[in-house]
Structure formats: C-alpha cells, structure tokens
Amino acid sequence: FSPSEVTVLFVLGGPGAGKGTQCARLVNDYHFKHLSAGDLLRAEQNRPGSQYGQLIKDYIKDGLIVPMEVTVALLENAMRDTITESKGATNKFLIDGFPRKMDQALKFEEIVCPAKLVLFYDCPEAEMERRLLERGKTSGRADDNAESIRKRFRTFVETSMPVVDHYEKENRVVKVDATATPDKVYATTQEKLKNVLG
Ligand code: UP5
Ligand code: MG
Q: What interface predicted TM-score (ipTM) does this complex get?
C-alpha cells in the first residue's frame, strides 16, 4: 500500500493509561482498525515456529522495547492484511502503544507512512500502577506484576516520553488527561479530536 492510501493516528501513554480502552471505543464509533503493538508482539510470541518468541517474552517481562525491526514488520503486515481483507475499505488505523522509542518513530514514518497526529493519554504513575495491579489479578499478562510494572514505568520515562516530546515540538500531539473515568476520558477524546473524527 502507499502512504497516501492510509491515515494513521499514534496512540501513546504510559502503561495502564487506558490506550486500549479508549481505542476500543473509537473503533466502535468511527471506522478505525485498532492495532496494538503489544498485542501483535504477544501474538507473535505465541505463534508456533516464530523465531522471536523467546526474545519477545524476555523483553516484555523486563518492560524493554523489542528491537524495532520486529515490531515495525508486524505492524506493516497487519496494516497490509487489513487493507487486503477489507478490499481497501479500511484504511484508518489507530496504532496503539507505538512508537515508544525514537528509532521506531523515525523508521515507521520513513518506510510505512507519517502519522496524522499523536493522541497522548496523560496519567499519573500512582493511578496507572493501581490499574495495572488490579488488572494483574486476572489478566494473565506476564508483565502485570509489581516488578515488571516498575520496569515498564522506567522505560516509559526514559525511552518513550522523548518520543512524545519530539512530536510535541512538531505540534502534532493531542494530549488528553486520562485520570478520570473511561466515559469522561472518552468524552474529552471526542472533543479534542472533533476536527479529525468528523
Ligand atoms: N482502565 C482503563 N481506563 C481506565 C480509567 N479511565 N479509569 C479506571 N480504570 C481504567 O487499561 C489498563 C487497565 O486500566 C484495564 O484494567 C482497564 O480496564 C483500566 P488499558 O486500556 O489496557 O491501558 P493501556 O494503556 O492499553 O495499558 P497496557 O498495559 O496495554 O500498556 P502498555 O503500554 O504497558 O502495554 P503494551 O501492550 O502496549 O506493551 C507491552 C510491552 O510490549 C511493552 O512493555 C514492551 O515490552 C513491548 N512493546 C515493545 O517492545 N514495542 C512496542 O512498540 C510496543 C510494546
Ligand atoms: Mg494496551
């Protein structure tokens, strides 16, 4: 596919900020395809015969960013599959939890397509921690435990916030306070995106 055929919004925010929750609502109300980089990595980790299974498992447990070649390829393939399966009808993508390191951001925009904007969910660490520990009781996610959460927060501050700052300098960030209830956060999202969502 060519960059001119697709619209991409990056959805960023710390671990547990509510990216997935808000993307699900946007998909429900508007014609987006939701692609979570974390979900694609977890699926690849479990795919029989994947050469990256163990690597992904180790990186996720330690809250580290999987080498970008793996993630960019998974995203690009998923975008291509979506476009093919829908015979071109679906061409608007919410790319959730990506890019979270500068090299990924530059690579993706160079070889796949530039993002229209960056939707950034801003949430205090204490609230994100509370949500993740609560979810960890039932999620089965290998990284929803106190130690992995600490590592994820550290990676977010040191590696992923510089990506948000980079886009902020380019005036491409739409920032939403993610502390309130999911309903309220969604209402703010719709309000701030009204020119984009139509
Ligand atoms: N919840 C949601 N909104 C709420 C609200 N407003 N009020 C109260 N509760 C709320 O929500 C998290 C929990 O909070 C849920 O229980 C929800 O009900 C509740 P969710 O919507 O899942 O938040 P989200 O921001 O999506 O949190 P997630 O845990 O998915 O964030 P991460 O960014 O940590 O996870 P992700 O799957 O994106 O990445 C996991 C790992 O994959 C990374 O740590 C990294 O190791 C790897 N990765 C890469 O290497 N490269 C990438 O490009 C991407 C990921
Ligand atoms: Mg998520």
A: 0.99
Which of the listed residues 8, 19, 133 should we mutate to test ligand 1's pocket, taking the one with most ligand atoms within 8 A of CB? 19
Ligand 1 near 136 CB (within 6 A):
no
Calculate helix-pair angle for 68-85, 37-46, nearest 10 degrees. 100
198 pLDDT above the threshold of 90:
no
45 lines ligand 1 (CB under 6 A): no
100 is in an annotated binding site: yes
Averaged confidence pLDDT in the chain = 97
* CATH no. for 3-192: 3.40.50.300
- Specify the ligand 1 atom closest to the Cα of 134: 16
How many other CB atoms are there within 10 angstroms of residue 70's CB atom?
19
The answer, as to whether pTM is greater than 0.95, is yes
